[in-house]
Write a structure and sequence with these properties.
With 96 residues, the chain is mostly helical. The protein contains 5 helices and 2 strands, in the order E-E-H-H-H-H-H.
Length: 96
């Protein structure tokens, strides 16, 4: 497990975000919420991104994957697998 520490959000400089050394730019939920409110048109992706809001608030990784999809319009197969794996782990039902 990577070492985690708290750092102020680079956008608002008010809220603290838990980060690892691999995250150069940490954003809090409040700053990233507007970015993630875009519409997902693909039914398969819409189903994948339909997870509880709390998961997005807790995981900057899940927010990052959704943000990349909204920005670029597509995800790689590995990004999709990783998103599903992390969201299943947060549910408490890890995928085999």
């Amino acid at each position: 497990m990577a070492i985690q520490y708290k750092q102020k959000c680079y956008a608002c400089k008010k809220n603290y975000v838990t980060v690892t050394r691999r995250q150069p730019f940490a954003m809090c939920w409040d700053c990233q919420e507007k970015e993630l409110s875009g519409e997902v048109k693909d039914p398969e992706m819409k189903k994948m991104f339909d997870i509880p809001l709390e998961y997005y608030k807790k995981s900057s990784f899940l927010r990052d994957i959704k943000s990349r999809y909204l920005r670029f319009g597509a995800l790689t197969e590995n990004q999709i697998k990783a998103f599903k794996k992390v969201s299943e782990e947060m549910k408490g039902n890890p995928q085999p």
